[in-house]
Amino acid sequence: MRFFNDIKNTHGVAVMKFFKQWAKFNSRLASLHNRRIFLLRCRSAGIKPNHLTNSIKGIDSLLADSHGIIRNQVNRYNNRLVDNLLNLEISITVDNIRRSESEIVKIKQQLTNIMSEIVVENFQRKMEINYKKKFYRIKETNISKFRRLESARKDLIKVQENWFKNISGISIPEDVRTFLSLGPKFNITPKKSDLNLGSLLADVEGLVSVSPPEMRNILTSKVVNVVTNYVHSRDTTYDPIRIMMMNTKSFLRAHQELLVTRSDKGNVSVIMKKSDYIDLSRELLTDEEHYQVLTRDPTSTIQQKSNKLMIKVRRKIGDDSGIIKKHTIYNSKVPKFYGLPKVHKPQLALRPIISSLDAPTSCISQYVTDLLTISYNRDNEFYVPDSFSFSDFINNFKCPPDFVLVSLDVVSLFTNIPFELVELSVVRHWNEISRHTQMSQNDLLELVRFIFDNTYFTYQGRYYRQTLGAPMGGKLSPILAQYVLDDLLTSVLPGLPFVMPFLKKYVDDLICMIPEGSLATVLEHFNSYNTHLQFTAEEEVDNPIPFLDIRVIRMGEVLRTDWYNKPSSSGRYLHYRSCHPQNMKLNLVTQMKTRVLRLTHPTFHSQCIVKLKKLFVMNGYPIKLLNKLLCNTSSSPPVEVTMSLNTDAMIDRADIVYATIPYIPVLSNKISLIFKDYKNIMIVKTMKHPLFKNPITIKDYS
Question: 161: Cβ–Cβ under 8 A, 6 or more apart, which residues?
Fold first, then answer.
């Protein structure tokens, strides 16, 4: 202030005004430069400043009654509007910076012409000091503001503690925990740099090749135009989860001793030490009752024997349809062993899985599986195809007096099925099986024996053969379990000193009703059938007992069903922030609602909807959206009707051609729209998680 008074007294009011204008523009530049940096950082990070989002609230309230597709269009319009406003504000800020700098240059030149150059230079140094003070003061404010905005975005990505299990003993950073908690189905918004243009054009060429010849040039030009516009557009995609992904990759590269996998049950992400995983795997493979070490890779030998066996069968039955010829294999792969940690158990163990894709016996396994599946009697009194049929059966079932509910479970059923029981089942059910094949009983048993004798795999460079049971992961295992357990029940039940009101079976889970105090007798009879097939039991406590995803509750003299989640279940679904089509997320909510309502007695409908809503809120779904989807009175068509409609559609569209393109928001939808008039083309949009490597597909009729 004293400086300006001195200038006023010495050089007059006009010169003083020049210096004040210089100070004003200098202060303004400090603010403008900070503003430009803040806005550019927001744009590069995909963060929308509050002053811009608040400015369009009037538009949003004007269109507040929009729903569904229109609501999505409104949201896209609002997002584009905010982006455009941000770009415009950046341009205005840059223009104001140029103007302010130009004004300072003009003022400096005018002052240099009318007064001492030393005074001007001293004032300029003072302005530089003032500029830096104000610049760094505003910078600190803007950094705090940006961090709040960034934190608000990260807060939208809420995960639950039980989605992630750290059994490594190593401290895991919060970003890494959050990212791994999102699970293998979570998809990150792709950037243009992620796009493999060559692969995309090859996929598009496949699409064009199945379209009418006269339209191919036109379709190609349309697709090329869409892809070109996308490639040359400004990439504004930003996802804070991408930063988490990069941090996770860096962390895992720095900790090569760690392994990321999923749990055996409950849909939980697990991180553990590789050494612990190897020790647990080796502990499993040292079980001489189930596994035998091989001295060499038997792949080539088993493949030759497999093909010769199928040729032998073909000659015997005179297969003219070529079905058996299709079940020969020439480029088989060695089955791989891996284990899934049982984190829900008190003591950590692995569930052994053998990946038998393209194994030497895979073709024979598929052939036998198809034959046994079509021959299986689904009308037997024990068989339960799914939770819905069991719910229909058990709801309002009248309980006899002095009877209790009991659930039975076979310990490691697949890996404990001896060939002798399979052989016995084939003999017992040969009348049903023989209606679907021209093979003799001995021929079929020879195929099954071959599969059992040649179940092998590799782990850490060593080769092993499974000597007992069917493998987890094998095609044939589930249907063999159905036959063997049916025979077990048929043999055991007549020997019990009482008659069960009902017994239902789903693979290795059984539920039945027995007289009070007879559980020991039941277990004794069931466990005496075969030494390898041993049962555990759970008796109803305070009335309810779980079976599949249903809780059976005794209410007076009748039974009713409620929706049930196992204690090991994480409650993790597809997260709302995942880069999936919006309709896929909406369908997930509505289909879960339909499922829950179908499984439960009307008495429990309201509390089940509350529970379902809570689960989806945990998965990031907006409460307003859930209220619209879960709390309306409309209901989806019954499953039987839906299945019928889908079957009819497939019959009418037997000439459907499938084509794949990567799922890229906006771009994939535009490409699909180009082919929307061709009803015989089904576009499948594919996605892949960057760490878990699990492919996800979305079918879309075009």
Answer: none
The stretches of 377-495 forming alpha helices (DSSP H) are 387-394, 419-428, 430-434, 441-453, 477-492
329: pLDDT confidence band, cut at 50, 70 and 90? confident
Please say if the pLDDT value at position 533 is more than 50.
yes
Report yes or no: 45 and 238 within 8 Å, Cβ to Cβ: yes
Contact (Cβ atoms closer than 8 angstroms) between residue 89 and residue 52: yes
Give first-to-last CA distance, the chain, whole Å: 74
The Cα–Cα gap between 243 and 234 comes to: 20
CA 125 centroid distance within chain? 60
Place of tokens 């796009």: 195
490 or 692, higher pLDDT: 490
β-bridge pairing 695-701 and 350-355:
unpaired
**Could you tell me the two tokens for 380?**
């037997």
Residue 93 has pLDDT above 70, yes or no: yes
Hey, is 626 helix, strand or coil?
helix
For the chain, give me the number of helices (H) and strands (E)?
Answer: 24, 19
Half-sphere exposure of 417 (CA within 13 A, CB side): 29
Who's near 372: CB < 8 A, 6+ residues apart? 433, 476, 479, 480, 483
Which residues 6+ apart lie within 8 Å of 153 measured at CB? 47, 240
If residue 407 lies in a helix (H) or strand (E), which one and from where to where? Answer: strand 403-410
Are 29 and 131 within 8 A, CB to CB? yes
Instruction: Determine what percent of the chain is predicted with pLDDT higher than 70.
Output: 89
516 burial (CB, 10 Å; 0-12 / 13-18 / 19+) is exposed
pLDDT score recorded for residue 547: 92
As a three-state string, the secondary structure of 51-113 is: HHHHHCHHHHHHCCCCCHHHHHHHHHHHHHHHHHHHHHHHHHHHHHHHHHHHHHHHHHHHHHH
pLDDT band at 83 (very low <50, low <70, confident <90, very high): confident
More confident residue, 691 or 101: 101
Q: What is the pLDDT of residues 32-44, one digit of tens each?
A: 999 999 999 888 7
User: Minimal CA–CA distance to 489: which of 516, 474, 508, 469?
Assistant: 508
What is the distance between the alpha carbons of residues 26 and 5, in angstroms, rounded to a whole number? Answer: 19
Res 663: pLDDT: 83
The whole-angstrom separation of Cα 340 and Cα 356 is 16
3-state secondary structure of 485: helix
Average pLDDT (395-412) is: 92
Residue 237 in this model has a pLDDT that exceeds 60 = no
pLDDT at position 321: 58
Q: Are 365 and 290 in contact (CB under 8 A)?
A: no
Burial of 355 (0-12, 13-18, 19+ CB in 10 A): middle
- What pLDDT sits at residue 325? 64
Phi and psi of 623, rounded to 5°?
-65, -40
Query: Alpha helices, DSSP H only, in 186-273?
Result: 197-209, 216-232, 240-254
Q: Rounded to whole angstroms, how far apart are CA atoms 574 and 663?
A: 16
Strands 657-662 and 681-688, sheet pairing: parallel
pLDDT > 90? residue 600: yes
Contact at 8 Å (CB) between 138 and 34?
yes
Which pLDDT value is given to residue 643?
35
With cut-offs at 50, 70 and 90, classify the pLDDT of residue 701.
very low
